[in-house]
């Protein structure tokens, strides 16, 4: 999997609608790392899930109720978090916002057209 794009210009990318008020843009990747911009409407949910990737996320704006393992915190713009591989985590957007997710290694499931099933709204979470 080779990414031939060095520059990913936000204005040239369409949002990929994930459902439940959540959209994303893949902003750069290679085999070892991937950065994804994720936009949430209020009430959008990333239901509890786990994956073998390490993940770190920066909260650009909004308010998010983030659970990692057994710990839950309210996060706002400027905050960040780290999720080790195979740790169950989930998020509820309490105020419309945006996250920047970074995964290692690359999330191949984001590139092969697979639909992620853990996005939705609070009502169906």
TrEMBL record:
Family annotation (CDD domains): cupin_KdgF (cd02238)
Pfam family, one: Cupin_2
Signal peptide: none
Cupin type-2 domain boundaries: 38-97
Alphabetized PANTHER family for the sequence: H2HPP ISOMERASE
Protein name: Cupin domain-containing protein
């Amino acid at each position: 999997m080779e990414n031939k794009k060095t520059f990913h210009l936000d204005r040239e990318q369409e949002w990929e609608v994930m459902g439940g008020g959540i959209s994303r843009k893949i902003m750069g990747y290679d085999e070892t790392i991937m950065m994804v911009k994720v936009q949430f409407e209020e009430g959008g949910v990333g239901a509890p899930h786990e994956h073998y990737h390490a993940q770190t996320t920066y909260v650009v704006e909004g308010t998010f109720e983030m659970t990692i393992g057994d710990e839950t915190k309210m996060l706002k713009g400027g905050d960040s978090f780290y999720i080790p591989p195979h740790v169950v985590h989930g998020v509820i957007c309490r105020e419309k916002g945006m996250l920047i997710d970074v995964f290692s290694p690359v999330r191949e499931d984001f590139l092969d057209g697979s639909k992620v099933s853990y996005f939705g709204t609070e009502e169906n979470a």
